[in-house]
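Lab notebook, design round three. We kept the backbone fixed and only want residue identities now. Task for the bench partner: fill in a sequence for the structure below.
Input structure tokens:
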């Protein structure tokens, strides 16, 4: 029955149509299984021993019956029975070792695949994550990896066990009585055809349920996050949401009932038909035995072997689908592993030289990578990759921030300022031209040294759902408690942290939602101060802060900029005034550059921005 359960389970887990599998997948699977060859050999060896033992018991049982009828010695009868007992014990032992091996292989394989996928995904450029749906990616890491493992161990072991059992049982039965064997097999088509039909039906139901479950999961993960829930409260229609969810849940419920019934029918057939075949064997075999054409023990042996014939036959009838399913799971994992990270460290990469660092853009042109360069349609959960991207958003950008200087970027929204900022820490690579730190192209520098050199505070300062301390230490795991408090003080967070009952151990909530915008911003600044970067990139998003928070954030920012080379996307006159150089960016071009006074005198775009935005904001503050 265990085999039939495995069959049912695999039928239900067929989430994909296992139609075609790409060439070479099998070879790659073998490659992945290579570290486990030793265990695999032991496992297959034991499987064979087990199969032989399983066939020998019915033969011995027949001997016992023949021994009784022939009235041979008690030693022979009891001895044979004892041998059956010994075989049972040995078989139980091999079963345990077998499971141990297969569990180690299976779990080892999960481990290998998970590590490989996690490590690979982590190396993906930001562009990949801006396109990929997190749920789809996580599902690759969980479901497909497990699917690959399960199918690998159960299908493989099943295939080997079943083939050997089938061959042995059939061989022994044919030598005992070919007539009875042929008769017993007559019922087989009546058994296999409905079983396959049922299997396909289960697969369809399973696929539908999987789709519905995935949709429910997506709905829940999106709605049950702090920002999602807020959006529902503000704009959503809770009744419609509940209705939509309920609709899916209802269909899952109905599928559940139909699946249960289909399963029951399958199991019924599974137990009924071999029993009927057995009755046939008893009847025909018994008749032959009464005529003296067959020994009584042989009839018993044939009847017992029959079950060992039917079970593997059913399993093998579906083996192709099982193996295809396994390969599809593997393929979905390999697909992720095959996305080449666009931004990689050169083997010859060197660290950023010590000392103050200059930042230089030379004739930089940049286009966001097109979808097919960075992601997978199947992870975006869209049928076709969108074709946005590929258009140049920065044209011929050249400027130089000397070590210790402050360069301010101003310009209207969508001009390309944030894009410029993202090129310095190499979140993206330029299309042409170069971005250099201390005269060295960032593409020739090690990732680690860029991370240590360039600190970024973005507009939506991201925090992990963890304590304040853990979020701070993310930038500098070895920081001492004094250093932590120093950063907190300089980021003007001391009062806040001291007022919290749990202090540094306060959990900030998902994405820092339990802090105000200004507090969140100052926490990300504290994190930056702790990391002590030599270059600071700020997307100075203070526009949405109230004036009190703004003053605190401003003070924290001044600390962050102190003595560092800085590129600041500035919205505030005080920062802009302090800048050694102001770059006015419009439509991906630097249209004006100079100091505040120079640009006011020039009476161009900057003077206009000054009149219409900065001065007003200053007046309101
Ligand atoms: N991830 C992205 N993929 C494709 N285009 C983008 C992406 N991010 C920004 N853009 C586009 O690049 C241009 C510049 O955007 P951005 O640098 O964010 O402007 P700014 O920061 O000056 O407001 C805009 O046209 C924007 O639509
Ligand atoms: Mg921006």
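Proposed sequence:
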């Amino acid at each position: 029955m265990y085999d039939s359960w495995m069959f049912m389970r695999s039928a239900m887990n067929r989430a994909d149509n296992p139609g075609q599998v790409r060439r070479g997948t099998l070879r790659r699977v073998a490659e992945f299984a290579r570290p486990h060859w030793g265990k695999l050999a032991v496992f297959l060896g034991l499987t064979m021993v087990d199969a032989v033992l399983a066939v020998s018991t019915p033969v011995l049982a027949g001997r016992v019956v023949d021994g009784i009828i022939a009235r041979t010695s008690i030693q022979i009868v009891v001895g044979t029975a004892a041998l059956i007992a010994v075989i049972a014990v040995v078989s139980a032992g091999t079963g345990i070792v077998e499971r141990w091996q297969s569990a180690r292989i299976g779990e080892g394989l999960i481990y290998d695949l998970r590590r490989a996928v996690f490590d690979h995904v982590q190396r993906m450029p930001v562009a990949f994550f801006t396109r990929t749906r997190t749920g789809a990616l996580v599902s690759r890491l969980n479901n497909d990896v497990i699917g690959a493992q399960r199918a690998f161990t159960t299908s493989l072991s099943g295939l080997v066990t079943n083939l050997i059992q089938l061959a042995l049982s059939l061989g022994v039965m044919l030598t005992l009585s070919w007539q009875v064997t042929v008769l017993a097999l007559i019922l087989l088509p009546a058994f296999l055809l409905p079983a396959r039909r049922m299997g396909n039906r289960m697969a369809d139901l399973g696929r539908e349920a999987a789709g519905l479950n995935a949709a429910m999961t997506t709905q829940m993960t999106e709605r049950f996050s702090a920002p999602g829930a807020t959006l529902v409260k503000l704009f959503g229609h809770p009744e419609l949401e509940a209705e939509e969810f309920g609709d899916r849940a209802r269909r899952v419920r109905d599928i559940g009932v139909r699946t249960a019934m289909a399963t029951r029918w399958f199991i019924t057939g599974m137990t009924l038909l071999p029993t009927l075949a057995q009755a046939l064997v008893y009847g025909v075999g018994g008749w032959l035995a009464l005529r003296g054409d067959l020994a009584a023990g042989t009839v018993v042996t044939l009847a017992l072997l029959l079950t060992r014939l039917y079970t593997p036959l059913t399993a093998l009838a579906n083996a192709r689908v099982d193996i295809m399913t396994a390969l599809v799971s593997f393929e979905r994992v390999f697909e992720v592993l095959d996305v080449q990270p666009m931004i990689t460290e050169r083997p010859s990469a060197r660290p950023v030289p010590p000392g103050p660092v200059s930042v230089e853009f030379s004739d930089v042109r940049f286009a966001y990578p097109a979808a097919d360069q960075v992601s997978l349609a199947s992870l975006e959960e869209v049928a076709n990759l969108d074709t946005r991207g590929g258009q140049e958003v920065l044209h011929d950008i050249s400027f130089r921030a000397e070590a210790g200087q402050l360069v301010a970027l101003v310009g209207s929204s969508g001009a390309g300022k944030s894009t410029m900022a993202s090129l310095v820490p190499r979140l993206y690579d330029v299309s042409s031209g170069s971005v250099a730190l201390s005269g060295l192209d960032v593409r020739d520098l090690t990732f680690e040294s860029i991370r240590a050199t360039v600190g970024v505070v973005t507009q939506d300062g991201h925090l992990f759902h963890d304590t304040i301390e853990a979020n701070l230490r993310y930038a500098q795991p070895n920081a001492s408690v004094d250093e932590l408090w120093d950063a907190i003080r300089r980021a003007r967070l001391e009062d806040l942290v001291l007022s919290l009952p749990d202090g540094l151990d306060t959990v900030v909530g998902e994405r820092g939602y339990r802090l105000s915008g200004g507090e969140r911003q100052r926490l990300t600044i504290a994190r930056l101060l702790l990391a002590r970067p030599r270059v600071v990139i700020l997307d100075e998003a203070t526009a949405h802060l109230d004036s009190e928070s703004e003053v605190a954030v401003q003070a924290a920012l001044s600390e962050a900029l102190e003595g560092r080379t800085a590129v600041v996307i500035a919205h505030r006159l005080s920062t802009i005034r302090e800048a050694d150089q102001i770059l006015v960016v419009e439509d991906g071009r630097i249209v004006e550059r100079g100091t505040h006074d120079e640009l006011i005198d020039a009476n161009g775009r900057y003077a206009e921005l000054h009149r219409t935005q900065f001065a007003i904001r200053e007046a309101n503050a």
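Keep this in mind before ordering anything: The first strand starts at residue 359 and ends at 367.
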